[in-house]
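Trying the structure run again after the queue cleared.
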Amino acid sequence: MVHKKKHTMRKKEERNSFRLVLSSRATSEINKTWNQLVQQQEQQKQDKKDEEEDDLVEFLRDGGSSNHRTMKWSILECGPSCQFKLHAHPNIELLYCIQGQLHEVRMKGDALSTTRSRTTSNSSSSSLLSNKEWYFSSLFEGQWLVNETGSVHKSFTSTSSGCRVWAMWSGSHADFDKDLSIVNNAVEEMNAKLCTDGCNPSLLLQTFVPESEQHHD
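Done. Tokens:
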């Protein structure tokens, strides 16, 4: 949560430091959205039948750690045609889009419980992700995204534009040994649509089903 009316953050690792200054209005909106996320997570926790603790509740309770990992704020600069490897999240991750758009192809269904391990060694995509469905979505300027522990996706920027993201994360992902063809094909297809003149990314909704799960007449 942001506590000051103007919050400045420097990314010391880079030679050209970047300073983030948020106006009181922007800070108010971030705090409002944050509180809504907390309330939603607490409600979901109450609605669950099992006793597994929610990621965000754990994060707040433990003072900034998730799945035994210390969290930190970072500024991520992603130029055009930037692609992350297909990965799972070993802990919760919070993203706020400062500028531009960040797109993704995300696995549908329940998160992978196997990624709750304290290690982040590469995982086998063939055994864990077989017959999974995927869907496309976008994170736009001024929006938050919560990646829960065990969620799987491949993030990317289009060839026509990049983004700047404010992220709270542990500094590592659990990358899979290789990308899946269904995911790579989905990224290529959606990137082509994003680069089409007159395209409205907010209207792009698509699901990708493995060949083995498709029903042919």
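The first strand starts at residue 8 and ends at 10. Worth checking whether this holds up in the mutant runs.
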